[in-house]
């Protein structure tokens, strides 16, 4: 079956960096655009970043543009989110997802990122 | 950016009742509207896409309707497992892909 496994979360201080990973199995990873979506404690869902199937295009939310970078390794069916200059307001559970807008919509279990001094 | 507004914020209902959740877009999104269900501590689960198509395995008591800017999700005969938070999401105009703020369905 399809599995998306999010890892790499943790607690860091403001200004520090983290790299999240999302290991995908059970589907042809290179056929899917991939997204990161986050959810701050007690809050709703916020789209963070998107990368095209072949990595040719990337899109970012205004709140993370210039600090976060999304990437992928299709040979390893893995999605990444490099997060730099982290802020307290970046504290959230981060989910990777296909966000397919139809069947083949899959989400990871989420990984918790905490930014605190 | 398309702003998605859901109402009400919280809905208290008895099991067995029928409820209607609303979602309004700040501009037309055609039929590119999805509904997600999220239970505490879990990732969101897709219920409905393309306004009215149920995802695989979603019970028939969930039905979506609408077009343009106004959409609804109706849940008929609420079951205990349906008490959760529901989000609408548009995928017509991107980036950004935008979600509503959620409607929490709680047991009365």
Radius of gyration of chain A: 13 Å
The total count of strands of chain B amounts to 11
Distance between the termini of chain B: 36 Å
Enumerate the spans of chain B where pLDDT stays under 50 for 5 or more consecutive residues.
Answer: none
| Helix vs. strand class of chain B | mainly beta
- Strand residue content of chain A: over 45%
- Oligomeric form: heterodimer
SS field, number of helical segments of chain A: 0
Class from secondary-structure proportions of chain A: mainly beta
Shape type of chain B: globular
The residue fraction in helices of chain B comes out at: under 10%
Q: Helices and strands of chain A, in N-to-C order?
A: EEEEEEEEEE
Strand order of the largest sheet of chain A: 2-10-9-4-5-6
Which stretches of chain A are low in confidence, meaning pLDDT under 50 for 5 or more residues running? none
Most extensive interface between two protein chains, with residue counts: A-B, 21 and 25 residues
SSE arrangement of chain B, N to C: EEEEEEEEEEE
Question: Which percent range describes the beta-strand content of chain B?
Answer: over 45%
Mind explaining what this structure looks like?
- The complex is a heterodimer of chains A (117) and B (108).
- In chain A, 0% of the residues lie in helices and 47% in strands.
- Chain A has no helices and ten strands.
- Chain A has a six-stranded mixed beta sheet, with no helix packed on it. In chain A, strands 1-3-8-7 form a four-stranded antiparallel beta sheet, with no helix packed on it.
- In chain A, a hairpin with a 6-residue loop joins strand 5 (45-51) and strand 6 (58-60).
- Chain B is mainly beta.
- Chain B has strands at residues 4-7, 10-13, 19-25, 33-38, 45-49, 53-54, 62-67, 70-75, 85-90, 98-99, 103-107.
- In chain B, the strands form two sheets. In chain B, strands 2, 4, 5, 6, 9, 10 and 11 form a seven-stranded mixed beta sheet that branches.
- In chain B, strand 7 and strand 8 (70-75) form a beta hairpin.
- The radius of gyration of chain B is 13 Å and the shape is globular.
- The interface between A and B is medium-sized, with 21 and 25 residues.
